[in-house]
Design goal:
The chain has six helices and seven strands; from the N terminus they run αββββαβααβααβ. The longest helix has 18 residues. It has one domain: Rossmann fold (3-Layer(aba) Sandwich), CATH 3.40.50.150. It is about 25% helix and about 20% strand.
Length: about 230
């Protein structure tokens, strides 16, 4: 995109809600290496405290590469953020497979995507589809959950945001502000953006502790009573 969509009124509306969620979700995730794939002009991992954080994308970022073919060793990353990367990938399923490959066991995935079953999805169907984000392929939440489950991810948390219609006018967006609280209560699956927090589980892994059976226990040394009589005493 030639213009940063997040600088527009409607983009700021989305960014404020997404950034708040990424901040809250990532602040207490610990490890050494954190990576953000896509939207490299926005630091979605700014609240995380890992010593090494970097961004990756085809055209910009600290590491330039195709997200579907990451030049990273397997099980090397503790946290990955995917802000709207799947919608613009030619092979989103392969992208998730790469994410699963490079994540360590018990590694975390934070994902944001546009919901096709919303006013935002309706605008994409009725609009020209030439500008960001309407030129992306909005993926159904159920499909994303199925992919994650098949790859061994466990869904820890998730929510919807951006219930207001996607109008690029700050005044109208404020007028539709009531739809945020109303949407969470009455139209829970109709938010324009879904946010997911998943963790990579590796089935069959368990901590091996030493077996403390009787043969490993130190046996007490018993001293037999002495029959010797001490001088001066009976």
């Amino acid at each position: 995109m030639t213009v940063n969509w997040f600088d527009l009124d409607v983009g700021q509306y989305v960014l404020e809600r997404e950034q708040a969620w990424f901040d809250a979700a990532s602040v207490d995730i610990f490890g050494f290496n954190a990576m953000q794939i896509g939207q490299c002009h926005v630091d979605f991992l700014r609240a995380n405290r890992m010593p090494f954080r970097f961004t990756s994308s085809v055209g910009d970022g600290n590491m330039r590469s195709r997200p579907e073919e990451l030049p990273i060793a397997s099980q090397a990353i503790d946290l990955i953020a995917l802000p709207h990367a799947l919608e613009f990938s030619p092979n989103p399923h392969q992208l998730l497979r790469e994410v699963e490959r490079v994540l360590r066991p018990e590694g975390h995935l934070l994902l944001a995507g546009f919901n096709p079953l919303s006013l935002w999805g309706l605008k994409r169907l009725t609009g020209s589809g030439l500008d960001y984000p309407w030129n992306g392929r909005f993926l159904h939440l159920t499909r994303i959950k199925d992919w994650l489950s098949l790859m061994g991810f466990e869904l820890l948390a998730g929510r919807m945001v951006c219930y207001a219609p996607p109008v690029n006018n700050s005044r109208w967006l404020r007028r539709f502000g009531f739809m945020e609280s109303a949407g969470d209560r009455w139209w829970a699956m109709g938010g324009g953006v879904y946010l997911l927090h998943a963790i990579k589980r590796v089935h069959g892994m368990r901590l091996i502790a030493p077996r403390w059976d009787e043969k490993w226990l130190a046996k007490p040394i018993l001293v037999p009573p002495s029959n010797r009589v001490i001088k001066g005493k009976q």
